[in-house]
Write a structure and sequence with these properties.
The protein is of the alpha+beta class. It has two domains: 77 residues, Glutaredoxin; 111 residues, Up-down Bundle (Glutathione S-transferase Yfyf (Class Pi), Chain A, domain 2). 56% of the residues lie in helices and 7% in strands. It has a four-stranded mixed beta sheet, with helices on one face. Helix 1 runs antiparallel to helix 6, helix 4 runs parallel beside helix 6 and helix 5 crosses helix 7. It starts with a strand and ends in a 5-residue tail after the last helix.
């Protein structure tokens, strides 16, 4: 049995999707990021970085944090969602690192400046939205000649998809990227993916700009403002994470 510590964020959903795809038995403990539960001592003992997701594989008494590392651990544990040959494995890891080092951080910063930051700093918004769009073009160009990112469907697709699906929340459209749209819709149709993105369910539809989404953004903005007023250490504890 695997214990999953998570929240309804792209990084959290990466792991719940993988667990569903692999049909591994798991329990879920949803952390309240707005209440700083991820910074409590009991969770820091699991993940010293104080971020979700993290897992505990009770069968071998082993803890894994960082979403990319968790995906690799689960894939290698089961021998699925990653090729066994060196070249095939490397292709998957390359696109996984593309998400970990590029898509996730850039979309995360776009979210902060476009959705949450109390001041609209247009150069910062343009910078991060522009980099997101550049990364999306890289994906679109590769997917023009490939059904999936690295051969068969893999953890590389799961990692990138969990973020790309939220592109509207970052203020970036993909209307002129047909191959990326095809891939996004194809993966969205997988039953395990649907179960994964509802574990836990998001309080908002990240594809929408409805009243609920706007209220969520306002609550996150208040968290950022609270962090600013309380100093750097407190800001680290109150700013929205992995949203």
């Amino acid at each position: 049995m695997i214990d999953l510590y998570t929240a309804a964020t792209p990084n959290g959903h990466k792991v719940s999707i993988a667990l569903e795809e692999l049909a591994l038995p798991y329990t879920v403990q949803t952390l309240s990021l707005s209440n700083g539960e991820q910074k409590q001592p009991w969770f820091l003992a699991i993940n010293p970085n104080g971020r979700i997701p993290a897992i505990v594989d009770r069968a071998v008494d082993f803890t894994v944090f960082e979403s990319g590392a968790i995906l690799l651990y689960l894939a290698e544990k089961t021998g699925r969602l990653i090729p066994q040959d060196a070249k095939g494995r490397s292709r998957v890891v390359q696109w996984l690192m593309f998400q970990m080092g590029g898509v996730g951080p850039m979309m995360g910063q776009a979210n902060v400046f476009f959705r949450y930051f109390p001041e609209k700093i247009q150069p910062a918004i343009d910078r991060y939205q522009g980099e997101c769009k550049r990364l999306f073009r890289v994906l679109d160009g590769h997917l023009a000649d490939h059904e999936y990112l690295a051969g068969d469907y893999s953890i590389a697709d799961i990692a990138n998809w969990a973020w790309v699906r939220t592109h509207r929340w970052s203020g970036v459209d993909i209307d002129e990227l047909p191959h990326l749209e095809r891939w996004r819709d194809q993966i969205r149709g997988r039953p395990a993916v649907q179960r994964g993105i509802n574990t836990p369910p998001s309080p908002i539809d990240r594809d929408a700009d409805d009243e609920q989404a706007l209220r969520f953004a306002e609550e996150a903005r208040q968290m950022v403002e609270m962090g600013q007023s309380m100093g750097p250490d407190s800001r680290a504890k109150t700013a929205p994470e992995s949203l």
